[in-house]
Amino acid sequence: MRYETKYLETDVLVVGGGLSGALAAIKAREEGVSCIVLEKSNTMRSGNAGSGIDHIFSYIPELHEKVGYTMDEMKEDQAKLDLASLGLGFRSLNDFFVENSYERIIALENYGLKFRFEDSNVPGGYRVVPQFHSVPTSFNFEGRDIKPILTREMQKAGVEIYNRVFVTELLKSGEQVIGAIGVGTREDIIYVVKAKTTILATAGGVDRLCKSGTGVDFERFHASSMNNGAGKVLALNAGADVINMEYTLAQGGMDWLNWTMSAGSPGGTYWPCARVVDEEDNVVMGRDIAFSPEDPDYKEKHQKQFARHLKGRKEVFRRLSQGEQLYMDMAEATDEEVEYVKWSLGHEGKCNTLLSNMEAQGIRFQDVKIPYQFEDNVHTFVSCSGVYTNVKCETTVENLYAAGNEIAGMSNNSAPEAVVYGVEAGIQAARKAKSIQKTETIDEKQVEKVKEMVEKFYLAENGDQWLDVEHAVQNVINTFGTIPHTDEKSRMALKVLEDIENNLNLHAENPHEVNRCLDVMFILETAKAIFLACEKRKESLGPFIKEINPEHVDAAPEDVEIYGLYKKDGRYDFHIIKADL
Q1: In sequence order, which residues have a C-beta less than 8 Å from that of residue 189 and are 6 or more positions away?
Q2: Which of 347, 425, 451, 510 is the most buried (most CB within 10 A)?
């Protein structure tokens, strides 16, 4: 046996060291318990926030109370964003987020992140811009180095960080989770971590399921290119419910040619400069502006502008889907406005590369039109799918918690929810750990099973290359994940995926390739969960389309059901969960 086994023990184990995982670990230490983080990459730049964030939304009392935008109004806006208004999310989670967003997000200032600016006309000195809600809620802030900053905070707090460890299985004793098993991705080491409580903080996206819009492996929109569905698979295999998996896939979208990080253009990071024009420079979608908080009609003006923005996006999408060529354009922007956009680009994930390339070539934003393209591929959806928890972040399995975007019933690619529920998971898991006197004994059979699996990768000299298998799964998604999600397509997809799984014989040359083999196994398992859920839901609801019906009215039925998928004794089954309307 080439693998050595390293045993560790802690009060709280955090699986994943991204934004939510880092905050969970810091908060666990503040509660006075020991904490280990296992991260398959490196916490300095891992996760969806690894290359930076320039916007993060919140209820902002200084601004919103002044202009008459209530917390209840933001809760309603947020419910639409997270699909809670259709009964697919949970009002309790949604409301808790809004109520705690400001306190927890602005607390990031304590770590040195900059939120206040001298040129601001907003109460509190913030830069607040329109983005996702009917009234501006998004802090524009300097988040380029949020991950290095939080890594240093973890180190100062005494968190034990183990980078380059791929967690492949949760340790169980009876009906409770007692830690996890990880595989080193740089050395032949099996990490066995015994813990009183365990937090899944592995991000919510499953971007590796689908081919990139550019056709380049690992090139993904916004989210980390490493997102493989790990938290969902770990929870599922431990017997915890994952829900709304049928909402993971979408079809069709608007991107820039050879660059999928359009960052919300013409809004988002390109506010306030960008608009959309056609080939004759006719404006298809105009620029959004920020009204003064002193304007007595601030709220009404912004709500009208937001409605126009949503209508404009639909029109842009319609025209692109019909083959028309449209462009992002900044021709009418002032130099001062462009400098503001460049500041935002310098902090938003991946966008600093676009900025540096344009500056290196001496290209001004006012002098170019960036073409949009319509792509009809299947892609992952920022949806309400994920691990089912209550407001305390507790899953349906004892001593197992989920953090941030891994939690279902909320947007699963959202920095603010990662912050709020990363903090909450750390607090709740730590408090539960304090109440546990001792953990159960590790079942060494689980450890041996993992060791045998990874040893086999090395022995299969003529086995499958991991990337070939990943492409095969992506082809299944592209073929059978299209709209509508009929039962027949789901059954055919499951048959092909089961054939792939039954004949799988992965080969690895080194620990890095072992990591990739494990990636592929998680991607395959996630794909199966999606098609099982697609077959289970029998009616169209929200972005899930069971059959094409132009007369379908999208509204949440009073008896809407949420399907909780879990595994027991190796077999899949569903719980019926009532919606929290």
Answers
A1: 3, 4, 5, 6, 183
A2: 425
